[in-house]
Amino acid sequence: MAKNASKFDPSVFLATIGEGRTILAFSKKQAIFTQGDEADSVFYVQKGKVRLTVVSKTGKEATIGIVIEGNFFGEGSLAAQLRRMGSAVAMTDCEILRVEKKAMVAALHREATLSDLFVSYFTGAQCPLRSGPGRPTLQLQRKAAGPYPSLARSLWQSG
Questions:
Q1: What's the farthest any 2 CA atoms get from each other in the chain?
Q2: How far apart are CA 104 and CA 102, in angstroms?
Q3: Which domains does the chain possess?
Q4: CB within 8 Å of 59: residues ≥ 6 apart
Q5: What is the per-residue pLDDT across 52-108, written as a single tens digit (0 to 9) for each?
């Protein structure tokens, strides 16, 4: 007896409000979260662009990524990160889906299609901390800062 295919659609999940999910509007240059804030949710860009930065202990700021429509950020909250390691600021007017950690974890465990989408995003070239020599830079949707990606990574890790 064949198991019924799931009717779960990740695009609907990522486009709608629901339990643990809210759609937020941010104006250009408005902070979405700040380094040191509680890491209690994951974000998905529905419209707009978001700049990810980190400030080192010596006060140097580096852009570590640009997140465009259809991409996630703030995923450190799912990896036992208690505080944000960097900041996120709207580069344009944005619509952002905020998914509480508990709701995202439950959905990832329950829905294989969402889990596959989420995992493929972070294991692919789209993630700046996993990009490097030999990766196709024109296909990056989140990219490391200018010609100094290793500096951005070291600032991120020491921040």
A1: 62
A2: 6
A3: 10-129+140-153 (2.60.120.10)
A4: none
A5: 999 998 999 999 999 999 899 999 899 888 999 999 999 999 999 999 999 999 999
